[in-house]
Amino acid sequence: RSGRIAGWALWHMLVLLAIVLTFAEARADPPIPALTGRVVDAAHVLSASTADSLATKLQAYEASTTNQVVVVTLPDLKGYPIEDWGLALGRGWGIGQKGKDNGVLLIIAPNDHQLRIEVGYGLEGQLPDATADKIIRSEIVPRLKGGDLNGGVTAGVDAILSALGGNYTPSAIETTGQMLRARARGFHDGDVEIEL
Questions:
Q1: Helices (H) and strands (E) in the chain, counts
Q2: pTM of the prediction?
Q3: Residues 6+ apart with CB under 8 A from 84
């Protein structure tokens, strides 16, 4: 009888250990690339001229406003949700000034067909989720679907900067027909992430 109790206790301890290890692994942040500038093209998908132009634009914007905007491309999400990447990159890189939380990340994972705009709390009034979603759907996705990744990222950055300045107006690229076709293919627009 005591052997059964010991076996039962050992089995339950192993199950508990497996559960704890599963949750510990699930809570770990994804491995983030080094922050090398205002454009981190870890997926190597942007042209050199686009990356340089964006970096120059974002550095000038930061110098004039103190808001930090960073573009990052990832070769893959390594099984993590894109939201986890946004949080890990924002925390790991320290995007935005301490106390102001005035950072924005434009995250593109082309091989996983996902993108996201992650906005620090200090800028949510200027760039709320609804506006970030509109930027993705109106400015970025139509260009990506047309094969123009560089143009999509550039248009996304321009729209983000316009929104932060209070001047964003969605482009005419998006039409009701495009949204209906996108919804029919399983895309969703209820969040600031869209699967391509």
A1: 7, 5
A2: 0.77
A3: 29, 30
